[in-house]
Specification:
The protein is of the alpha/beta class and 266 residues long. It has a single domain, classed as NAD(P)-binding Rossmann-like Domain (Rossmann fold), CATH 3.40.50. 46% of the residues lie in helices and 14% in strands. Strands 3-2-1-4-5-6-7 form a 7-stranded parallel β-sheet, sandwiched between helices.
C-alpha cells in the first residue's frame, strides 16, 4: 500500500477516524488535505503529519455548503495538482430518541452533514477524478446503513443513503478508472460512541460501554486505526477492481445481529 506521490483528501479529518486515516495516508507516502469544520482540529492533524516528516495542509469547511466543498477541492488542486484518494468521511450522530419523538431540526442537521455532505463531496471531487481518469473514493457509511438501530432514525436513514450514493456513483464512473466504495464501521472507540453512551446513561457511560463491548464477538470496540487500514486498502492498487461495495469493520457485531439494539430503552 504505497501512496508515494499521491494526494489524499480527508473530510472530518480533525479527529477520530478522519485523523487516524489522514495520518495513515501520510505514513504510506501520500500528501494529505485535511478538511474539517473545526479549524483547530484540522490544523492539529496536519501538524501531526508535518511533525512526522509528512506533507499536509488544513482546510476549514462546512461540508453542507457547496461553496465550502468547492473551496476544499480548489485548495487540494492548487496545492498538489490532483486528488487521487478521497475519504468522504465527515459525519455526526445526532440525538437518541424514538422516531415518534425525534426532533425535526436534529433530523435535518444529521441528514445535512451525513447525506448532503457526502453528495457534495462526490459532486465536486468526481469531476477532478474524471479529468484524471483515475481515483478512489471511500464514503463513510456504518453498520447502521445495513441494519436498524432503534432510537437513531436520522443516523440510520443517513447511512443507508450513503450506501445508495456509493453504489450509484460507482456505476457511473467505473469505466473512467474511478472506484467508489463504502466502509461500514461498527462502534469505534472515538468521541461519537462515548457521546452516545453518555446520552443513554448520563453519569454512568462507562457501564454502557462495558455492556456494549461485551455483546461484540471480538469483545471490544474497533479502533480508528483499524478503520483507517480498511480505507487505505480500498484506495490502494490491492483493491484495483473493487467498486460499489460496502465493507464492514465491526468485530463481528452484525454477524450476530448485535447491531440491532434499542438505544432508547431505559
Amino acid at each position: 500500500m504505497d501512496f508515494t506521490g499521491k494526494v489524499a483528501l480527508v473530510t472530518g479529518g480533525g479527529n477520530g477516524i478522519g485523523r487516524a486515516t489522514s495520518a495513515a495516508f501520510a505514513r504510506h507516502g501520500a500528501k494529505v488535505v485535511v478538511v474539517d469544520r473545526d479549524a483547530a482540529g484540522a490544523e492539529a492533524t496536519a501538524g501531526i503529519i508535518r511533525q512526522s516528516g509528512g506533507d499536509a495542509i488544513a482546510v476549514t469547511a462546512d461540508v453542507t455548503k457547496s461553496e465550502d466543498v468547492k473551496a476544499y477541492v480548489r485548495a487540494a488542486i492548487d496545492k498538489y495538482g490532483r486528488i487521487d484518494c478521497f475519504f468522504n468521511n465527515a459525519g455526526i450522530e445526532g440525538k437518541l430518541a424514538a422516531t415518534a419523538e425525534y426532533d425535526e431540526a436534529v433530523f435535518d442537521a444529521v441528514i445535512g452533514v451525513n447525506v448532503k455532505g457526502v453528495f457534495l463531496g462526490l459532486r465536486h471531487v468526481l469531476p477532478e477524478m474524471i479529468r484524471q481518469r483515475s481515483g478512489a473514493v471511500v464514503n463513510t457509511a456504518s453498520v447502521a446503513g445495513l441494519v436498524a438501530t432503534p432510537g437513531m432514525p436520522a443516523y440510520v436513514a443517513s447511512k443507508h443513503a450513503v450506501i445508495g450514493l456509493t453504489k450509484t456513483a460507482a456505476g457511473e464512473v467505473a469505466r473512467q478508472g474511478i472506484r467508489v466504495n463504502a466502509v461500514c464501521p461498527g462502534p469505534v472507540d472515538t468521541r461519537m460512541i462515548h457521546a452516545l453512551e453518555e446520552q443513554i446513561s448520563p453519569g454512568n457511560a462507562a457501564a454502557v460501554g462495558e455492556r456494549y463491548q461485551a455483546a461484540i464477538p471480538s469483545g471490544r470496540y474497533t479502533t480508528a486505526e483499524e478503520i483507517a487500514n480498511m480505507v487505505l486498502f480500498l484506495c490502494s492498487d490491492l483493491a484495483s477492481n473493487t467498486t460499489g461495495g460496502q465493507f464492514i469493520v465491526d468485530g463481528g457485531r452484525t454477524s450476530t445481529g448485535g447491531a440491532v439494539t434499542n438505544l432508547v430503552e431505559r
